[in-house]
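Researcher: Hi, I'm a grad student and pretty new to this. My advisor asked me to get structures for two proteins we've been looking at. I'm not sure of the right format, so I'll just paste the first sequence and hope you can take it from there.
Model: That works fine. Here's the first sequence with its structure tokens right after it:
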Amino acid sequence: MIYTTKNFWEKTADTNNFLNKNYLWIARWGKNTGDIPDINSYPPLPPNGYSIKDAPDFWQFTSKGQVDGITTDVDLNLIAKNIWNEYISCYNDTYET
């Protein structure tokens, strides 16, 4: 897994080499209000020069999130649906409802 900021990724990464082998986790906070952003108005990566294969698997969208039981701000992330489905399928036998 590669964890980086949007700016560092754009300036230094060889996307063809990395994305074929690793998950991409981008930290891009925008307004950083703690609220879940509208990904259509503020996507984790800009559309210029990127294809869907370059979309991050994980997006850290704020460092000011709130979670019950934790008194300080926390980082919050969104996960791509296909990655979540892969994760859940590993535990399907254990956590049947």
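Researcher: Oh nice, that was easy. Here's the second one.
Model: And its structure:
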Amino acid sequence: MKAIEDVWLEIRDGNGKPVFSRVLKTSEEYWVPADEDGYAMTTGNAGGLQMIVDGVPMSPMGKTGEVRRNIALNPAALKVMLSPAEPATPETAVPVQ
């Protein structure tokens, strides 16, 4: 996952133990270990987080500032919950300065 805005995250393992809890600053990333099962996430800014599932950027899971809780962090669940992000077009692309 990648922060596209500052976003608070808390990630818990399958036993509910926190394994990560802090603000990701814009452009920082967190990679869920592939061999871990049962991880779940709570975020305080669902619109500020870009999920990447099997190398594919996904659509936002909510609006800026929206709180989302107990989001299963496994590829199958995320693919059901989210759709692939729309590629940028000339009309939607953000200019680089």
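Researcher: Is there anything I should tell my advisor about the second?
Model: You could mention this: DSSP finds one helix and eight strands in the chain.
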